[in-house]
Design goal:
Elements lengths: L7 H5 L2 E2 L9 H11 L8 E5 L7 E6 L2 E7 L12 H13 L7 E5 L2 H4 L3 E5 L16 H19 L17 H16 L5 H9 L11 E3 L8 E3 L6 E4 L6 E3 L1 H8 L18 H4 L4 H12 L8 H24 L5 H7 L2 H14 L3
Antiparallel strand pairs: 1-2, 2-3, 3-4, 4-6, 5-6, 7-10, 8-9
Helix pairs in contact: 5-10, 6-11, 7-13, 11-12, 11-13
C-alpha cells in the first residue's frame, strides 16, 4: 500500500537526527561556539530541519538556548551558490536596522570545524506558513497575514543600505540584466537536456530588459514560507533564507511574491486556484496598491515580463537541484520531486514571455 503524500506543513516542519555525512563534529562545534557565540554554554545536541533543499540547516540545542546553524552543502558546488557568508552579512546589517531577522552570532570560514563554512544565529520562536491557503485560520487572520507580508517587504525595500553597512552588497544598476546572465550561466552549468522553452527565454529575456528605477536590498526568494510569524498574531518575527539576496531592483521581490497569484496552490504558497474571497486572501491588485502606497510608487509596470523572468529563474534553480540529484549530492528527499518541475516551469515562463511580447 502506498503512503499518502504528506502535506507541506508536515513534510517540511520539524527536525530529525542527522545521519551519515550530515552529522556535525560535536566536540569541534562546541569549542567553536564557546569561543564565538556570546553566552553559549554546552553541551550541545544537534537536529537537522526537514525543510529546504539548498543550505543544510540544523537546530542546535544547549543549556544556554536554541540556535540555528546553516552550512554549505558538501560536494562540488556551482560558483557563487550557497554563499553562507553573504547570508550572514545581510542579516547582521538588517538586524542592526530593526528589520525582522534572526540575531546573528558568528560566521565560520574554517572548513575543519564542520567540513564546510557555516554560521550560527538565534532560533526565533514562531511558526512557518507552508500552505498559502492557511488551513484552519480565519478570513480576518489570513488577510492580516498577507498584508503584513507585503508591509514587511516594503520595509525591507526602504532600509537605508548605507546605514545597514550593505552599500557593497551588490552592484548598482542593471539588476535584471545581471540576473538573467547569472541564471543563464547557472542553468548551462547544470543543464542535463536541451529544452526549447529555455533556449527561447535565454534569447528573449536579455533583449527585453525593463528599466531599473530604484535600488534596495532584494531578498531574492520572498514568499510566505520564508518567514517566521508570531504564533498568536499576524506579525513577521523573522524573514529567513537570504541565500539569493543582493542589492537590486525591488520589483524583483514584489513580482516574485506576486507569483503566488499566478501559481496553483498544491499545498504550497500559490493562491491562484483558491476561493480567495471566501478565505479572506486579498487580490493581487490590492497587494499592488498596498505595496505602492508604502513605497511611494504610482504603480508597477506590466508584470508579464517579470513573471517570465521569475519562472525562468525558478527553472534554473530547480535544474541545479536536478543535477545534484543525478550526482547524488542533493540534501533532501524533497529534492528528487522538485527536479521533475523544470520543464513545467520553463513552459510557464515562455507563456508569460509571449504575453510580454515575445
Amino acid at each position: 500500500m502506498s503512503t499518502p503524500p504528506l502535506d507541506a506543513q508536515t513534510a517540511f516542519s520539524g527536525t530529525a537526527a542527522p545521519e551519515g555525512a550530515d552529522i556535525l563534529d560535536e566536540a569541534k562545534l562546541t569549542a567553536w561556539m564557546e569561543a564565538n557565540v556570546e553566552g553559549f554554554e554546552g553541551p550541545l545536541t544537534q537536529h537537522k530541519f526537514a525543510g529546504g533543499q539548498s543550505n543544510p540547516t540544523y537546530k542546535i540545542s544547549a543549556p544556554s538556548g536554541n540556535y540555528v546553524l546553516r552550512r554549505k552543502p558538501y560536494g562540488p558546488l556551482l560558483p557563487s551558490a550557497h554563499a553562507v557568508d553573504r547570508e550572514y552579512k545581510v542579516q547582521s546589517g538588517l538586524h542592526k536596522m530593526g528589520f525582522p531577522v534572526a540575531r546573528q552570532y558568528g560566521l565560520c570560514t574554517d572548513d575543519s570545524v564542520t567540513g564546510s563554512w557555516f554560521y550560527v544565529m538565534a532560533m526565533v520562536d514562531g511558526h512557518t506558513i507552508w500552505d498559502g491557503a492557511m488551513p484552519g485560520s480565519t478570513p480576518e487572520n489570513r488577510r492580516a497575514t498577507y498584508e503584513t507580508m507585503i508591509d514587511t517587504l516594503a520595509a525591507l525595500h526602504k532600509v537605508d543600505v548605507e546605514a545597514a553597512g550593505l552599500s557593497d552588497y551588490g552592484k548598482p544598476g542593471n539588476y535584471f540584466g545581471r540576473q538573467v546572465d547569472r541564471w543563464t550561466k547557472q542553468y548551462r552549468l547544470a543543464e542535463t537536456e536541451t529544452m526549447d522553452e529555455m533556449e527561447q527565454l535565454i534569447a528573449f529575456l536579455p533583449a527585453s530588459l525593463p528599466e531599473q528605477t530604484r535600488t534596495s536590498v532584494v531578498h531574492g526568494d520572498y514568499r510566505i514560507d520564508n518567514m517566521i510569524f508570531a504564533k498568536d498574531r499576524p506579525e513577521v518575527l523573522a524573514v529567513l533564507d537570504w541565500e539569493l539576496s543582493t542589492l537590486g531592483d525591488p520589483l524583483a521581490d514584489f513580482t516574485y511574491v506576486a507569483m503566488a497569484w499566478v501559481t496553483e496552490n498544491g499545498g504550497r504558497s500559490g493562491v491562484m486556484d483558491l476561493d480567495r474571497q471566501a478565505l479572506g486572501i486579498p487580490e493581487l491588485n490590492e497587494m499592488v496598491e498596498r505595496y505602492c502606497a508604502a513605497t511611494d510608487r504610482t504603480g508597477v509596470p506590466d508584470m508579464n515580463w517579470y513573471f517570465a523572468y521569475n519562472f525562468f529563474r525558478l527553472a534554473g534553480i530547480i535544474q541545479g537541484i536536478k543535477k545534484r540529484v543525478i550526482e547524488g549530492t542533493a540534501s533532501s528527499q524533497h529534492a528528487k520531486d522538485m527536479s521533475e518541475r523544470v520543464r513545467p516551469l520553463a513552459e510557464r515562463a515562455w507563456d508569460f514571455a509571449r504575453k510580454a511580447g515575445a
